[in-house]
């Protein structure tokens, strides 16, 4: 079958049933699944949210806005849909009434994705969605991670013992030995904090935290060069929280922090991942109810396209 997206020159981009980037929809039980290299997946779940909810609606709006994306990268000229077989695998079905059941359902879904030898590119959902993905991708040996966010998401627990929230996924992932902390770098960290417990944990286990002040002082190229050195050539996950970007450009998210990168820098950092051995990636925390006009989702979809362009480099 053809894995090329529907061209806007054949069917206008505002027409048709929306899939991610107008790719074919290939469910996991479809016979063609064996041909897929990269699977774009929706994770419509925000059961880990501690403040303003809404990312459960993210995949649908991201699919809609992603129909504006064309086939060729504007700078590099890369045509990702020709470099690898990409498809929209649909949504993982969570249980909005049960957090642990949702984590198990997601893990089971991603296990099937991995068994089909497909690299997942996920649209969240809140940041807790990254944990069940890492439980699959890091099951055999811990992986590295490049993480864009204004928060570390390394806290131990919320509200006196809630250990599974969107502020704790990477603490759990280190404890469960899914991530190799010495191959983890977190970029863009800023904002007020409850305390420094997350940063103390990062320091204790060897996670490299690059606060936004250092990011701006050094510049994108220098910071990404260090990030590539930290993860090296081995398996690396990329997790991108839309709140990495300044809320002027990405207001539709639950826990925005001012003083962040602009939308150009939001794309530029992903281009700096060229050559990294990416085994999967996600774009999380887009909350459509907080930006019904869709500017945040348009940026999110554009970041997903940038991620796809660096992921295909290792697929051919
Ligand atoms: Mn996050
Ligand atoms: Mn965040």
Key features of this structure:
316 residues, alpha/beta, Arginase, Chain A, binds manganese (II) ion
Give a structural overview.
The structure is a single chain. This protein is α/β, with parallel strands linked by helices and 316 residues long. It has one domain (20-314): Arginase, Chain A (3-Layer(aba) Sandwich), CATH 3.40.800.10. The protein has helices at residues 58-66, 80-83, 99-115, 130-137, 169-175, 197-205, 212-218, 220-231, 263-271, 295-311, and strands spanning 38-43, 86-91, 119-124, 143-148, 179-189, 208-211, 236-241, 278-284. The protein has an 8-stranded parallel sheet, sandwiched between helices. It is globular and about 55 Å long. The relative contact order is 0.18. Bound molecules: manganese (II) ion (2 copies).
